[in-house]
């Protein structure tokens, strides 16, 4: 049985993904890995809101997803970014199908806190059947982070958390957070391997901050018996060399040094 790998590609890096990145993906597909992708899109949503002159409200440094903001977010995530990504994969010789978490009942969510965040969901249930069907047929599902409530209302979901939930539902062997840095950095050096305990410490002393916090928290949440390794890797270079993944490995325990 083929192994499954889930990639989360940050909005920060989608438009700068290197040819090596796609070649590495192709290599994995040729080795028989089943691949699924979840993507972000923050910067493109911000640009479109500016163009359309839609006012945005910030709560604790986070943009509140009002109904007009959600309309734009869905248009950008499910439309321009999702199809851009699909086209890039096809251009590099891979078969891809763009969907969102609303399709096939993939991501079912509840309001996280409507007063505080607006139309933002907390994922309640994941139904991976549609994604599995696509992967079995040789397609890479490219998933925009949107969800529906039981009443079919659309909610935006954090892409890091969506990727973690999808990896769990698919019993993925690996989850890769693709971003604009080489991995988790400390004093200008990349940390090659880190445990949840060390992550907690680095968050509290500020080594891990900003957008890296939801990412490492989603990574830790994804660690299960099946998903035993989550990685943070760069999308602007190569993440695979001679069958070895390059970046920061997040594991429950440190690897035994032989
Ligand atoms: N210790 C750390 N090591 C590496 N990056 C860190 C660290 N602490 C904070 N960061 C920040 O985290 C950023 C990556 O998270 P960010 O949320 O910006 O990207 P993304 O999730 O890939 O994209 P998006 O959120 O737009 O979808 C890095 O660019 C860096 O500024
Ligand atoms: Mg982010």
UniProtKB/TrEMBL annotation:
GO terms for cellular component: cytoplasm. Pathway: Amino-acid biosynthesis; L-arginine biosynthesis; N(2)-acetyl-L-ornithine from L-glutamate: step 2/4. Its EC number is 2.7.2.8. It catalyses: N-acetyl-L-glutamate + ATP = N-acetyl-L-glutamyl 5-phosphate + ADP. The record marks 8, 215 as: Transition state stabilizer. It holds the Pfam family AA_kinase. Coiled coil: none annotated. GO terms for molecular function: acetylglutamate kinase activity; ATP binding. Keywords: Amino-acid biosynthesis, Arginine biosynthesis, ATP-binding, Cytoplasm, Kinase, Nucleotide-binding, Transferase. Substrate binds at residues 41-42, 63, 156. Belongs to the acetylglutamate kinase family. ArgB subfamily. Catalyzes the ATP-dependent phosphorylation of N-acetyl-L-glutamate. This is Acetylglutamate kinase. It comes from Bacillus sonorensis L12.
């Amino acid at each position: 049985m083929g192994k499954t790998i889930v990639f989360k590609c940050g909005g920060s890096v989608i438009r700068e993904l290197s040819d090596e990145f796609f070649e590495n993906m192709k290599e994995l597909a040729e080795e028989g890995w089943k691949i699924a992708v979840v993507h972000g899109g923050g910067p493109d949503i911000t640009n479109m809101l500016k163009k359309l002159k839609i006012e945005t409200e910030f709560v604790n440094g986070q943009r509140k997803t009002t109904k007009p903001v959600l309309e734009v977010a869905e248009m950008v995530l499910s439309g321009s970014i999702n199809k851009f990504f699909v086209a890039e994969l096809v251009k590099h010789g891979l078969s891809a199908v763009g969907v969102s978490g609303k399709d096939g009942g993939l991501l079912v969510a509840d309001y996280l806190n409507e007063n505080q965040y607006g139309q933002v969901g907390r994922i309640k249930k994941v139904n991976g059947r549609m994604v599995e069907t696509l992967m079995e047929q040789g397609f890479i599902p490219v998933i925009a982070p949107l969800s529906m409530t039981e009443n079919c209302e659309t909610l935006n979901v954090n892409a890091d958390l969506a990727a973690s939930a999808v990896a769990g539902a698919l019993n993925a062997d690996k989850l890769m957070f693709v971003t604009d840095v080489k991995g988790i950095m400390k004093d200008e050096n990349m940390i090659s391997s880190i445990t949840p305990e060390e992550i907690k410490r680095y968050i509290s002393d500020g080594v891990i901050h900003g957008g890296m916090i939801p990412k490492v928290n989603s990574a830790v949440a994804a660690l299960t018996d099946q998903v035993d390794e989550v990685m943070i890797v760069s999308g602007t270079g190569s993440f695979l060399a001679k069958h070895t993944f390059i970046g920061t490995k997040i594991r429950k325990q440190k690897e035994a040094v032989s």
